Amino acid sequence: MTRYVEVVFLRILFVIKQIDYEPMGIMHLSSVLRAAGHEVELSIAAQEDPVQRARDWQPGVLAYSLSTGSQDYYISLNRQIRQVVPTAFSVFGGAHGTFFPEMIAAEGVDGVCVGEGEYAMRDLVDALSTGRQPFDIANWWFKRDGAIIKNPPRPLIADLNELPLPDRDLVYQRHRLTRQAKIKHFITGRGCPYDCSYCFNHAYWEIYKGTGSKRIRQRSVDNVLQEVAYVQDRYPLGFVVFVDDTFIVFKDWVAEFAEKYPAAIGLPFFCNVRANLVTPELVAQLKRAGCVSVGMGIEAGNDELRNQVLRRNMSQETIIRACRTIRDGGLHLISTNMLGLPGGTLAHDLETLELNIACRPSYANTFLFQPYPRTALGEYARENGYMEGSYEDIHTSAWETSILKFPPGEKRQIENLQKWFALVVEFPWLRRIMRPLLKLPRNRLYWLMHKLWKGYAIKQRIHPHKLTLREYVDMVSLYMKLD
Question: Are both 87 and 136 inside the same structural domain?
């Protein structure tokens, strides 16, 4: 006699403040949850009232993916939503949840997911849907009777191909501008072999040591092309952006991709590279495949900051040679850099400016260092007294303000330099004009100057694609609203 078990499916409402581009984590979680039979929806606070949305839809689970700096916003919003759905179970994940799970102590936070979330989230929702207590599920921190339960992580997903394709419909159905944008974003793998002190990858790996997990996992080329083709067949797509930290780690994978991508997709694309891996052969391979631009970290011009503090372990000569190889191979380059590093000064940041001028990128993207919790450099900044305030004071944007201490008068200049940086790399003669102007108070003119030049350079050089007038207006409208 066959026994049937009644399964009750739950409604999960993901809530996000705004859409910059496709939220990869949420899309992956949604596809796994929908494959398990649950209902999933997305509320975007920038275009609707999520409290009213929750009141109307009555979800059983409220879910938030956080970066450090946004936690107060989401915790407060969750409290408001819980007033209209008091029985909902509120869960938090993302980078901040992973590296700061102590947020479980906050009012209204029922669970915090540490690390990879697809199967952890599915198991939690399955348990809640059948009325089972979820307190023993791996990867989760919970509160129970005043005590905090800290469950260990499960191994990382070894075969990423087993996951369903990301649920892009979840986002595209709710956000017109992302749906209609001809630029769309994809990711081909997880993990990184390098231990840069400012990056989450080394801290993330610390969570999984001893679990038998592989540090780097790559989807098959065919699996990636299946996803791109799915989007290409259903939505506007003219330019592909691969957001992997380092796209070129596995040479055999890149070779197979370069052979199959032109025939299967045939669209121009962007990817990230690393200076010590760049060769003329690699650049030629990417160029033949359809790549038009790459991103590469320079990060700091000062050798000690770059190699001892940031753990980049590469010389200026290696960086300059890689930039020349990329340019000579016919690809545009966007460099990434950090100003306001712990132990750094304005003079050090001007060295970074000079190295970028020598490298001649098509655009020099520059951030103000943020001491994110649990990263080696974030902890170094905190332990050595470089921070003004705490992690709670970190801004959601990495180009607005710094929370580090600097010699008198330098902090304002460093923050202003971030706005001037890319223009001066493009037009080095502006150096003389810039230096006295760095001392002025922070102002919207510098912000606008930075924003307009970045928008132009990215559109024309890094992600070039044709737009109708309506598409151009939509793109500029969205871009100017982003934090």
Answer: yes
